[in-house]
Amino acid sequence: MTLAEQLQQIIATINAKYAEMEKITTKASKEKRLVDDDEEKQIAELESDIEALEKNKARIEKMIKRAEQAQKTATPVAGQTPEQGQKTADGDPNPTGVTVTENIEKGIGFAQYVKAKSLSMRMARKGTFVSPLEVAKSKGMHPNVVQALEKAVVLDTQNSSELIAPHTLSNEFIELLRAKTIVDKLAKHMRTAPFNTTIAGMATGSTAQWVGEGKAKPVSNPTFNSVEIKHHKLAGIVVMTDELLHLSTYSADKMVLDDLIASTKTLIDTTFMDDKPQTDERPAGILNGAEKITATGKDLESTKADLAKLRKVFIAKNLSLSGAFYVMSETRASEIAELTDALGNPYYRGMQAGVNEKTLNGLPVIESETAGNVIALLKPSELYLADDGDVQIDTSNEATITIGDTEHNLFQENKFATRVERCMTWAKRRLMASAYIDYSEIS
What we know:
Helix content is about 40%, strand content about 20%. By secondary structure, the protein is an alpha+beta fold. It folds into 2 domains: about 1-75; about 160-205 and about 225-443, 2-Layer Sandwich (hypothetical protein PF0899 fold). The strands form 4 sheets. The chain has a 6-stranded mixed β-sheet with strand order 6-15-10-7-9-8. Strands 1, 2, 5, 11 and 14 form a 5-stranded mixed β-sheet that branches. Strands 3-4 form a two-stranded antiparallel ribbon. The longest helix has about 35 residues, at about 35-75.
């Protein structure tokens, strides 16, 4: 048993002793009396045990601290030459001048952070308080995670259930997520906006004309609208078994990370690509209020005609195609890539490229299966995006969660749920910011 594990055991025993004392005094209080002689004797024995345990706890904490300090200051035996050997003897920790840095895959630290927080809460609900920092140390988690939790202790002295992950770790998670979602791939082209604001926008464009000297000046009447940027929060939930939480392996950490990204990505993309209106709980889908073109077929001629109609929707409303993107499923992109001309050559050569590199009629293509039966053409510069860039972590083993059509009682099934929340929303600057081809009636 390691010193850290001994420390956890002592802390758990101390907590249990205090719980016994509380049980005795509570019983006497409910019976409206003082503790009797037998109870007083039990309390005295418990206090004596606690005093001894506290001494052991202080001793082990001191030993752990000395070991950590020795690890930081100890001079390793090193040196390839007599000069380097002398540097070692003189206390130089790096006589060769070579620095070795422990690498960790991006996002794994965030997954370990989530596991440490979840394990801490799980143990607390069983009556044993072990801080996330102590969990991370006992599980041998990466030094970056331990360092982040050491800083978090200062901010989270009450071990609250919600905790904002340190920027160094949450930024890695957000960065990985942004490489996956449709919204985040378009984010750098969108207009930034603050939460809970109303922005005046232009619903239709104005026009200008040449006018002769002395002639009446033409008057154009653009129409205006108000765009409300609400404060929306999305939550991705991952259910983990107790065994997975306790595994201290790369594959277990990687599984937690992948599940967290997948659950969050799916919610963002499915919301972005639907046609539902904005509510207090969610932003409007990009297809809401957009002009729909019903697909006439999947063959080359039908595809050419339907794509031409889609582009004309933008052009007819004085909306430039410059900076526009196509969004479609990987399945639809594959079908278009296979269309050939009369000589058997690929007709849309830009669709032969790899994922995230495809172009269609000179415009970039974003692929996501959440696009389903549509090909959307949208202009991100006509969209507002509000995103605070942080994530919050919350955990529970007492909730009942519905996955698909099945309800899961986490307590009964010995499982634990971790919820990662991100505050973000989007809104169209103009309804004409998008249009789409609907293939739902084409088999």
